[in-house]
Write a structure and sequence with these properties.
mainly beta
Length: 538
């Protein structure tokens, strides 16, 4: 960090992403250490899209004047990470940066935004309380209120160095004027690029994409558009409120899940906007958060709400559940509640709903929500169950225990009765080991590990059998025929599933967050934080 950038930071007032400290943190006892931990967690948990900074050695006065005092000693990144790692469920992305200015030494702790917030203390330590969510409210650090906790979990569920490319984009088909940002992908790999009616997504707000009848439906925040997959032209568009799941098509309806509501519109192509006042049907969810899977006229939404348990009426818990909605009319078929905190998106296979929470995995009948079997995977509440993968024989699920940082486990179960077949061997020593998605291919599990490699395990014996040499930042993948298509912050790469050789790579000109690739008719559709929806070819 150069002196000019440091000066620009110091010109800013204290707020949700700037905090000034007159004195260097002291680590002489648990209370002093916990002051640093609380400050970092507060910054890391606050909903924002930009980096946050704790500036040390500068006194900020109420009138905005800054006094440059300086510090006499420094830490490094590893000191802070070692302090935090056994006291918090996962370590925020942070950097400790010494700065020289006006002949004095200062320090800046940079905390990057993360899709993994909220970060929770896993035990009492000094002034930090176990399982308490700390946030930045204005220029103060405080415990999150119930409505702020809901916003954090809603954001969490809206689900994680390339060379510069100088190719010309003069012959590129761009739908609507490219006024938002520069194109991120090479011209020879782009079929079309769209940046019209949608807001630019951020690392925490992802466009939700799906393809039906050669139309790519893309939704973010209050807008959903249907794009012709051959040319990117808009053929359908609707206004909703905080879209939180992939649009789907059922019979002649386009159904869009949004915050607290599911809306169904006619699928008839139109250049005019569909609005809430011309829906075919609407249903209100019992919570502010909805995700879904669907099958044969039924959609499943995840419901999350604050509720008290009968045995602890004074304590509010995040209660996770599933509700089944009839796609023909929006009526509720059944609801299933738990008092578990975290969860994965449910998977439907052969009219059975598989649902993983922080404590348990459930197999429910799709017809009425009754339990077929239930297995406990963890002894204490966790906010980060791993994604769920199911095929005709097996089910793979995983959890980690925030009260025991050494415990993280992935298991393969018999999908029909929940009996354990094996434990998948995980070598990573970090807690958010799996941070994209899984796929089951016969007896093999494909996923990504926390070292940002693509990996394959044998689910009969749990052994790791292959790992990519290359690393990919924030990878997320999809399967298409015999290929694995991996999107990551530096581009899109294609692997052959048969021998896991790399057979294609589209490299971006700069690092951007990217959605899960959708492959249809040999086109790869992705959206990223440069403001575009892309149709790509290898």
């Amino acid at each position: 960090m150069d002196g000019n950038f440091f000066v620009e930071l110091c010109k800013k007032p204290e707020g949700i992403n700037i905090d000034f400290k007159r004195d260097q943190y002291k680590l002489n006892n648990d209370i002093l250490k916990s002051n640093l931990i609380k400050d970092i967690l507060s910054m890391a948990n606050t909903i924002r899209n930009d980096d946050a900074y704790i500036i040390i050695g500068v006194k900020s006065y109420p009138n905005g004047v800054k006094e440059y005092i300086g510090v006499e000693s420094h830490f490094d990144d590893s000191d802070i990470q070692n302090l935090i790692k056994d006291k918090v469920d996962k370590v925020p992305i942070l950097h400790y940066i010494p700065v020289m200015f006006q002949g004095k030494s200062f320090a800046v702790i940079k905390i990057s935004p993360s899709r993994y917030r909220p970060f929770l203390p896993i035990r009492d330590f000094g002034i930090v309380r176990k399982q308490c969510i700390y946030i930045r409210r204005g220029s103060m650090n405080d415990e999150a209120r119930s409505e702020e906790i809901m916003e954090l979990y809603k954001e969490k569920l809206l689900n994680d160095t390339p060379k510069l490319n100088t190719n010309s984009t003069s012959n590129l088909t761009v739908i609507n004027s490219p006024t938002k940002n520069s194109i991120s992908y090479p011209a020879e790999n782009i079929i079309w690029a769209y940046n019209g009616d949608l807001e630019t997504m951020t690392n925490s707000n992802y466009w939700n994409q799906s393809v039906f009848d050669n139309i790519l439906y893309v939704g973010l925040k209050d807008t959903c558009v249907g794009l012709d997959i051959d040319n990117g032209n808009v053929v359908w568009k609707a206004r909703a409120t905080e879209i939180v799941g992939k649009p789907l098509k059922y019979n002649e309806l386009i159904i869009v899940p949004s915050s607290g509501r599911i809306s169904a519109w006619s699928s008839e192509k139109s250049s005019k906007w569909y609005h809430q006042n011309n829906t075919i049907w609407q249903c209100n969810s019992r919570s502010n958060i909805s995700f879904y899977d669907y099958y044969n006229g039924t959609v499943l939404i995840i419901t999350v709400k604050m509720s008290a348990r009968a045995d602890e009426p004074s304590q509010l818990y995040l209660m996770t559940g599933i509700e089944s909605i009839d796609l023909t009319n929006g009526n509720s078929n059944w609801a299933f509640d738990t008092y578990d905190m975290g969860h994965s998106v449910p998977v439907i296979l052969n009219e059975v709903v598989y649902f993983l929470t922080s404590l348990n995995i459930y197999a429910l009948r799709l017809t009425d929500g009754s339990i077929i079997w239930q297995k406990q995977l963890n002894k204490t509440p966790s906010t980060n169950p791993f994604p769920l993968a199911v095929n005709e024989k097996y089910l793979v699920a995983g959890v980690w225990d925030p009260y025991n940082p050494e415990f993280f486990e992935m298991v393969c179960l018999n999908k029909d009765n929940g009996e354990k077949i094996c434990v998948i061997e995980l070598e990573s020593q970090t807690h958010n080991f799996i941070h994209s998605n899984f796929a089951l291919l016969d007896n093999k599990l494909v996923g990504t590990n926390d070292n940002e490699h693509i990996a394959v395990w044998d689910i009969i014996n749990g052994q790791l059998i292959w790992e990519s040499e290359e690393t990919y930042q924030y990878p997320i993948f999809s399967l298409h025929k015999e290929n694995l298509i991996v999107g990551y912050m530096g581009g899109v790469v294609k692997y052959s599933i048969n021998d896991m050789t790399q057979i294609g790579h589209i490299e971006a000109s700069e690092k951007k967050y990217i959605t899960e690739p959708i492959v249809h008719n040999d086109k790869v559709f992705v959206s990223c934080t440069d403001g575009y929806v892309y149709a790509l070819r290898f």
